[in-house]
Amino acid sequence: MESNRIRVGADPFPPYQYYLPDGTIAGQDYEKITTLFQQVGLTADVVIKDWEAVISELDKGELEAAFQVQDTPERKKRFYFSDLFRNAVTEVVTSNPELKINSYGEIETLGLSLGVIEGYTNGAEIDALKEEIKKTYPNAESLLTAISRGEVDLGVFDRGVKEYIMANNHLDNIYAIESMTFIRPLYVIFNNADLRDTFNIALRAAAQQS
């Protein structure tokens, strides 16, 4: 870290963080993360790129923090996790309003297909499903479009991302299976414990004000 500047990475995840056509960054989480760092006297220089590149650069010390991140045992061994950054609502979605499931295991038993985004951590239940029922897509937009067209039966989506893509692509046939909706906690990760502790000061102050 040079003087009061902190290098922070994230993957493209509109409406939370994304590049505008002019190359500047916008988004709800981008605004939140830069504001929190400012409150502890740091300027966040944010870059948005493929998640694997973000993690690689964090490992090598080329980045000092990354957001918004799910906690896994493997990640907790490698990085320092902040307090809760925010909760996300995750949905299982389909283009078939009649389709109902109550567990990921039913995807296999009913002979359904599940779309997943390449390189993303989907959780133990999804990872345990047979690979032959999964279809991989390069990004959230291509996956949601495939669901809308009926190319794949199901996908797992952040609610905000789903609504953003639906609005931008004029998709009106995507339905959430309410029994499968859950809350997913997200964090900011660091390769330095002192920097994590400094960031937590701003997080805790913001939590007290809300």
Structure, described:
The protein folds into 2 domains: about 110 residues, D-Maltodextrin-Binding Protein, domain 2 (3-Layer(aba) Sandwich); about 100 residues, Periplasmic binding protein-like II (D-Maltodextrin-Binding Protein, domain 2). It is built from 8 helices and 12 strands. Strands 1, 4, 5, 6, 7, 8, 9, 10, 11 and 12 form a 10-stranded mixed β-sheet that branches. Strands 2-3 form a two-stranded antiparallel ribbon. Helix 6 crosses helix 7. It is globular, with a radius of gyration of 18 Å.
Question: Helical residue percent?
Answer: 25-40%
Low-confidence stretches: none
The first-to-last residue Cα distance is 30 Å
Radius of gyration: 18 Å
Domain module tally: 2
CATH architecture of the largest domain: 3-Layer(aba) Sandwich
Number of helices: 8
Percentage of residues in strands: 25-35%
CATH topology of the largest domain: D-Maltodextrin-Binding Protein, domain 2
**Mean of all residue-level pLDDT scores:** 93
